[in-house]
Write a structure and sequence with these properties.
Sporulation protein; 66% helix; single chain; globular
Protein backbone atom coordinates (compact mmCIF):
# COMPACT_ATOMS: atom_id res chain seq x y z
CA UNK A 1 0.00 0.00 0.00
CA UNK A 2 2.63 2.50 -1.05
CA UNK A 3 0.17 4.30 -3.31
CA UNK A 4 0.11 8.03 -2.37
CA UNK A 5 -3.66 8.16 -2.90
CA UNK A 6 -4.19 5.33 -0.40
CA UNK A 7 -1.82 6.93 2.09
CA UNK A 8 -3.74 10.21 1.79
CA UNK A 9 -7.08 8.44 2.33
CA UNK A 10 -5.68 6.58 5.35
CA UNK A 11 -4.36 9.83 6.81
CA UNK A 12 -7.67 11.65 6.38
CA UNK A 13 -9.98 8.83 7.46
CA UNK A 14 -7.89 6.71 9.80
CA UNK A 15 -9.09 3.67 7.86
CA UNK A 16 -6.52 1.11 6.74
CA UNK A 17 -6.79 0.70 2.96
CA UNK A 18 -5.43 -2.85 3.11
CA UNK A 19 -8.42 -3.81 5.27
CA UNK A 20 -10.81 -2.06 2.88
CA UNK A 21 -9.36 -3.88 -0.13
CA UNK A 22 -9.51 -7.23 1.70
CA UNK A 23 -13.14 -6.55 2.57
CA UNK A 24 -13.91 -5.59 -1.03
CA UNK A 25 -12.38 -8.85 -2.25
CA UNK A 26 -14.46 -10.85 0.22
CA UNK A 27 -17.65 -9.16 -1.04
CA UNK A 28 -17.20 -10.36 -4.60
CA UNK A 29 -18.65 -13.83 -3.99
CA UNK A 30 -20.74 -13.10 -0.90
CA UNK A 31 -24.36 -14.25 -0.75
CA UNK A 32 -26.28 -11.06 0.04
CA UNK A 33 -29.52 -12.98 0.49
CA UNK A 34 -28.01 -14.79 3.50
CA UNK A 35 -28.71 -12.91 6.74
CA UNK A 36 -25.69 -14.38 8.55
CA UNK A 37 -23.35 -13.29 5.76
CA UNK A 38 -24.78 -9.78 5.64
CA UNK A 39 -24.53 -9.39 9.44
CA UNK A 40 -20.92 -10.54 9.28
CA UNK A 41 -20.15 -7.94 6.61
CA UNK A 42 -21.86 -5.19 8.62
CA UNK A 43 -19.80 -6.14 11.68
CA UNK A 44 -16.59 -6.07 9.63
CA UNK A 45 -17.37 -2.65 8.13
CA UNK A 46 -18.21 -1.42 11.62
CA UNK A 47 -14.83 -2.62 12.92
CA UNK A 48 -12.92 -1.07 10.04
CA UNK A 49 -14.75 2.24 10.42
CA UNK A 50 -14.41 2.06 14.20
CA UNK A 51 -18.09 2.91 14.47
CA UNK A 52 -20.58 0.98 16.56
CA UNK A 53 -23.73 -0.08 14.74
CA UNK A 54 -26.74 -0.26 17.06
CA UNK A 55 -28.80 -3.45 16.86
CA UNK A 56 -31.80 -1.53 15.46
CA UNK A 57 -29.69 -0.12 12.62
CA UNK A 58 -28.06 -3.49 11.96
CA UNK A 59 -31.51 -5.08 11.63
CA UNK A 60 -32.58 -2.31 9.25
CA UNK A 61 -29.45 -2.77 7.12
CA UNK A 62 -29.90 -6.55 7.02
CA UNK A 63 -33.54 -6.25 5.98
CA UNK A 64 -32.73 -3.65 3.36
CA UNK A 65 -29.98 -5.76 1.83
CA UNK A 66 -31.49 -9.26 2.07
CA UNK A 67 -35.16 -8.55 1.45
CA UNK A 68 -35.44 -5.24 -0.34
CA UNK A 69 -32.67 -6.00 -2.79
CA UNK A 70 -30.54 -2.93 -2.08
CA UNK A 71 -27.01 -3.11 -3.39
CA UNK A 72 -24.35 -3.46 -0.76
CA UNK A 73 -21.62 -0.94 -1.37
CA UNK A 74 -19.69 1.41 0.84
CA UNK A 75 -21.77 4.39 -0.25
CA UNK A 76 -25.05 2.69 0.72
CA UNK A 77 -23.67 1.55 4.07
CA UNK A 78 -22.19 4.97 4.76
CA UNK A 79 -25.46 6.72 4.04
CA UNK A 80 -27.41 4.33 6.24
CA UNK A 81 -24.93 4.58 9.10
CA UNK A 82 -24.81 8.37 8.97
CA UNK A 83 -28.52 9.02 8.57
CA UNK A 84 -29.77 10.91 11.64
CA UNK A 85 -32.60 9.34 13.59
CA UNK A 86 -36.03 10.85 13.09
CA UNK A 87 -37.66 12.12 16.25
Amino acid sequence: MDNPLFKNIEKKTGVNMKEILELANSLQNANFKDEKTVRSIIHRVSEIANKKVPKELEDKLVKSITQDGKNLDFNTLSKMMNTPKKK
